[in-house]
Amino acid sequence: MDDADWSPRSLDEARERIDEIDGTLLDLLHARARVVEHVGRLKRESGGTGATSAFRPAREIAMMRSLYERTRDPLAFATVFAVWREIISGFTAAQVPLSVETVAETAALARDTFGVQAALTIAPSPGDCLGIMAQKPGTIALLPADGINWQAVIDSGGKVVAAAPFAGAGITAWCVTMGAPEPSGEDVTLTLAQDGTLHHIPGFDNAPSDGIALGGYPVPLKTGLLQP
After folding, report:
1. In sequence order, which residues have a C-beta less than 8 Å from that of residue 101 and are 6 or more positions away?
2. What is the DSSP pairing of strand 140-144 with strand 198-202?
3. What's the longest Cα–Cα distance across the chain?
4. Helical H runs in 96-176?
5. What are the CA-CA distances from residue 13 to residues 34, 48, 115 (Å)?
6. Cβ atoms of 228 and 197 closer than 8 Å
7. Which end of the chain has fewer CB atoms < 10 Å from its terminal CB, N or C?
Protein backbone atom coordinates (compact mmCIF):
# COMPACT_ATOMS: atom_id res chain seq x y z
CA MET A 1 0.00 0.00 0.00
CA ASP A 2 1.26 3.48 -0.89
CA ASP A 3 0.48 5.39 2.31
CA ALA A 4 1.04 8.71 0.53
CA ASP A 5 -2.20 8.11 -1.41
CA TRP A 6 -4.08 6.38 1.41
CA SER A 7 -6.82 8.07 3.43
CA PRO A 8 -8.56 6.14 6.23
CA ARG A 9 -12.35 6.16 6.41
CA SER A 10 -12.36 5.75 10.19
CA LEU A 11 -10.13 5.95 13.26
CA ASP A 12 -10.27 2.17 13.63
CA GLU A 13 -8.98 1.73 10.07
CA ALA A 14 -6.10 4.11 10.78
CA ARG A 15 -5.19 2.21 13.94
CA GLU A 16 -5.31 -1.12 12.11
CA ARG A 17 -2.86 0.29 9.57
CA ILE A 18 -0.54 1.40 12.38
CA ASP A 19 -0.65 -2.14 13.81
CA GLU A 20 0.25 -3.57 10.37
CA ILE A 21 3.18 -1.20 10.03
CA ASP A 22 4.40 -2.00 13.56
CA GLY A 23 4.35 -5.69 12.68
CA THR A 24 6.37 -5.05 9.54
CA LEU A 25 8.91 -2.98 11.51
CA LEU A 26 9.30 -5.79 14.04
CA ASP A 27 9.84 -8.34 11.26
CA LEU A 28 12.51 -6.10 9.74
CA LEU A 29 14.24 -5.72 13.12
CA HIS A 30 14.33 -9.50 13.46
CA ALA A 31 15.85 -9.73 9.98
CA ARG A 32 18.43 -7.07 10.86
CA ALA A 33 19.32 -8.93 14.05
CA ARG A 34 20.03 -12.10 12.06
CA VAL A 35 22.39 -10.18 9.77
CA VAL A 36 24.13 -8.60 12.76
CA GLU A 37 24.71 -12.08 14.21
CA HIS A 38 26.64 -12.95 11.05
CA VAL A 39 28.59 -9.69 11.29
CA GLY A 40 29.65 -10.59 14.82
CA ARG A 41 30.66 -14.10 13.73
CA LEU A 42 32.72 -12.80 10.81
CA LYS A 43 34.49 -10.31 13.08
CA ARG A 44 35.35 -13.03 15.59
CA GLU A 45 36.66 -15.27 12.84
CA SER A 46 38.83 -12.51 11.38
CA GLY A 47 40.24 -11.45 14.77
CA GLY A 48 41.69 -7.98 15.28
CA THR A 49 39.94 -5.02 16.90
CA GLY A 50 36.53 -6.00 15.61
CA ALA A 51 36.61 -9.19 17.66
CA THR A 52 36.69 -7.27 20.95
CA SER A 53 34.74 -4.10 20.13
CA ALA A 54 31.73 -3.53 17.91
CA PHE A 55 32.00 0.27 18.25
CA ARG A 56 32.42 1.73 14.78
CA PRO A 57 31.66 5.47 14.99
CA ALA A 58 32.63 6.16 11.37
CA ARG A 59 30.15 3.56 10.17
CA GLU A 60 27.44 4.85 12.52
CA ILE A 61 27.82 8.50 11.55
CA ALA A 62 27.96 7.68 7.83
CA MET A 63 24.72 5.75 8.34
CA MET A 64 23.14 8.73 10.13
CA ARG A 65 24.14 11.07 7.31
CA SER A 66 22.41 8.80 4.82
CA LEU A 67 19.29 8.59 6.99
CA TYR A 68 19.22 12.37 7.32
CA GLU A 69 19.27 12.80 3.54
CA ARG A 70 16.35 10.37 3.20
CA THR A 71 14.18 11.68 6.05
CA ARG A 72 10.99 13.38 4.84
CA ASP A 73 8.47 15.58 6.58
CA PRO A 74 6.50 15.21 8.78
CA LEU A 75 8.96 12.75 10.35
CA ALA A 76 11.49 14.83 12.30
CA PHE A 77 15.08 13.65 12.03
CA ALA A 78 15.45 13.91 15.83
CA THR A 79 13.02 10.98 16.06
CA VAL A 80 14.86 9.00 13.40
CA PHE A 81 18.19 9.65 15.12
CA ALA A 82 16.89 8.54 18.53
CA VAL A 83 15.31 5.36 17.13
CA TRP A 84 18.40 4.34 15.17
CA ARG A 85 20.64 5.20 18.12
CA GLU A 86 18.87 2.54 20.18
CA ILE A 87 18.76 0.05 17.30
CA ILE A 88 22.51 0.39 16.86
CA SER A 89 23.09 0.24 20.62
CA GLY A 90 21.10 -2.95 21.04
CA PHE A 91 22.58 -4.77 18.09
CA THR A 92 26.11 -3.62 18.95
CA ALA A 93 25.72 -5.04 22.45
CA ALA A 94 24.50 -8.30 20.92
CA GLN A 95 27.85 -8.67 19.11
CA VAL A 96 30.22 -7.64 21.90
CA PRO A 97 29.23 -5.92 25.17
CA LEU A 98 29.90 -2.20 24.82
CA SER A 99 31.77 -0.83 27.84
CA VAL A 100 31.97 2.94 28.32
CA GLU A 101 33.99 4.79 30.98
CA THR A 102 33.17 8.43 31.61
CA VAL A 103 32.86 11.00 34.39
CA ALA A 104 29.75 12.51 35.98
CA GLU A 105 29.98 15.61 33.81
CA THR A 106 29.44 13.63 30.60
CA ALA A 107 27.33 10.74 31.92
CA ALA A 108 24.09 11.95 30.32
CA LEU A 109 25.88 12.53 27.01
CA ALA A 110 27.36 9.03 27.19
CA ARG A 111 23.91 7.49 27.57
CA ASP A 112 22.56 9.56 24.66
CA THR A 113 25.56 8.66 22.49
CA PHE A 114 25.85 4.94 23.21
CA GLY A 115 22.27 4.02 24.09
CA VAL A 116 20.69 2.16 26.98
CA GLN A 117 22.38 -1.17 26.20
CA ALA A 118 25.90 0.16 26.81
CA ALA A 119 27.57 -0.81 30.10
CA LEU A 120 28.23 2.68 31.46
CA THR A 121 30.58 3.28 34.41
CA ILE A 122 31.14 6.64 36.09
CA ALA A 123 34.82 6.97 36.98
CA PRO A 124 36.29 9.50 39.46
CA SER A 125 38.38 11.31 36.82
CA PRO A 126 39.28 11.32 33.11
CA GLY A 127 42.62 9.74 34.06
CA ASP A 128 40.79 6.80 35.61
CA CYS A 129 38.74 6.45 32.41
CA LEU A 130 41.94 6.24 30.37
CA GLY A 131 43.53 3.74 32.74
CA ILE A 132 40.55 1.37 32.56
CA MET A 133 40.32 1.80 28.77
CA ALA A 134 43.98 0.78 28.39
CA GLN A 135 43.46 -2.33 30.52
CA LYS A 136 40.13 -3.54 29.10
CA PRO A 137 40.09 -4.23 25.34
CA GLY A 138 37.14 -2.62 23.55
CA THR A 139 36.41 -0.06 26.27
CA ILE A 140 35.54 3.49 25.25
CA ALA A 141 36.70 6.45 27.33
CA LEU A 142 34.35 9.40 26.85
CA LEU A 143 36.27 12.46 28.04
CA PRO A 144 34.94 16.01 28.47
CA ALA A 145 36.40 18.26 25.77
CA ASP A 146 37.07 21.17 28.13
CA GLY A 147 40.41 21.02 29.93
CA ILE A 148 41.41 17.61 28.61
CA ASN A 149 44.93 16.42 29.47
CA TRP A 150 46.20 15.43 26.04
CA GLN A 151 49.51 14.16 27.37
CA ALA A 152 47.57 11.66 29.47
CA VAL A 153 45.73 10.53 26.35
CA ILE A 154 49.01 10.09 24.50
CA ASP A 155 50.57 8.20 27.41
CA SER A 156 47.57 5.83 27.57
CA GLY A 157 48.18 4.69 24.01
CA GLY A 158 44.59 5.52 23.07
CA LYS A 159 43.39 7.40 20.01
CA VAL A 160 40.51 9.79 19.44
CA VAL A 161 38.04 7.99 17.17
CA ALA A 162 34.96 10.22 17.41
CA ALA A 163 33.53 13.47 18.74
CA ALA A 164 30.35 13.59 20.78
CA PRO A 165 27.55 14.27 20.28
CA PHE A 166 27.38 12.62 16.86
CA ALA A 167 24.85 15.26 15.75
CA GLY A 168 24.75 18.78 17.05
CA ALA A 169 26.20 22.26 16.99
CA GLY A 170 29.46 21.59 18.81
CA ILE A 171 31.83 19.07 20.34
CA THR A 172 31.32 18.36 24.04
CA ALA A 173 33.43 15.24 24.49
CA TRP A 174 35.92 12.94 22.79
CA CYS A 175 35.67 9.18 22.34
CA VAL A 176 39.06 7.57 22.97
CA THR A 177 39.79 3.88 22.40
CA MET A 178 42.77 1.59 21.95
CA GLY A 179 41.64 1.02 18.38
CA ALA A 180 42.44 3.22 15.39
CA PRO A 181 40.12 5.78 13.78
CA GLU A 182 38.35 4.78 10.57
CA PRO A 183 37.26 6.98 7.65
CA SER A 184 33.60 7.95 7.32
CA GLY A 185 33.86 9.96 4.09
CA GLU A 186 33.97 13.34 5.88
CA ASP A 187 36.61 13.41 8.58
CA VAL A 188 38.98 15.57 10.59
CA THR A 189 42.46 14.70 11.86
CA LEU A 190 43.18 15.85 15.39
CA THR A 191 46.76 16.83 16.27
CA LEU A 192 48.63 18.45 19.12
CA ALA A 193 51.22 21.03 18.11
CA GLN A 194 54.53 21.40 19.92
CA ASP A 195 53.24 24.55 21.62
CA GLY A 196 50.32 22.58 23.08
CA THR A 197 47.60 23.92 20.78
CA LEU A 198 45.00 21.60 19.32
CA HIS A 199 44.60 21.51 15.55
CA HIS A 200 41.64 20.18 13.55
CA ILE A 201 42.85 19.35 10.04
CA PRO A 202 40.27 18.47 7.37
CA GLY A 203 40.76 14.98 5.98
CA PHE A 204 41.42 11.51 7.34
CA ASP A 205 44.91 10.65 8.68
CA ASN A 206 46.21 14.04 7.59
CA ALA A 207 48.53 14.93 10.47
CA PRO A 208 51.53 17.21 9.78
CA SER A 209 55.04 15.98 10.53
CA ASP A 210 55.61 18.59 13.28
CA GLY A 211 52.60 17.61 15.38
CA ILE A 212 51.52 14.66 17.49
CA ALA A 213 48.64 12.70 15.96
CA LEU A 214 45.85 12.28 18.52
CA GLY A 215 43.53 10.42 16.14
CA GLY A 216 40.63 11.69 14.12
CA TYR A 217 36.87 11.97 14.05
CA PRO A 218 33.98 11.87 11.60
CA VAL A 219 32.45 15.32 11.21
CA PRO A 220 29.36 15.33 13.42
CA LEU A 221 26.14 15.57 11.48
CA LYS A 222 25.27 19.11 10.35
CA THR A 223 27.94 20.82 12.45
CA GLY A 224 30.63 21.48 9.83
CA LEU A 225 34.28 21.55 10.81
CA LEU A 226 35.20 22.75 14.28
CA GLN A 227 37.73 25.56 14.03
CA PRO A 228 40.83 25.37 16.25
Report:
1. 121, 123, 128, 129, 132, 133, 139, 140, 141, 142
2. unpaired
3. 70
4. 107-114, 126-135, 150-156
5. 32, 52, 34
6. yes
7. N
Q: Supply the pTM of this predicted model.
A: 0.85
Q: Quick one: how far is CA 204 from the chain centroid?
A: 17
Going by the DSSP 8-state scheme, the letter that residue 221 receives in this structure is: B
pLDDT tens per residue across span 139-180 = 999 999 998 999 999 999 999 999 999 987 789 999 999 999
Residues 6+ apart with CB under 8 A from 195: none
- Note the pLDDT tens digit of each residue in 50-79: 555 678 999 999 999 999 888 877 678 888
What radius of gyration, in Å, describes the C-alpha atoms of the chain? 20
Cα(90)–Cα(193) distance, integer angstroms:
39
For residue 170, give the nearest of 145, 204, 202 by alpha carbon: 145
- Contact status, residue 132 vs residue 123, Cβ threshold 8 Å: yes
Q: Can you tell me the distance from the alpha carbon of 103 to that of 120, in angstroms, rounded to the nearest whole number?
A: 10
Calpha distance 43→30 (Å, rounded): 20
Do 40 and 53 meet the contact criterion of CB atoms below 8 Å apart? no
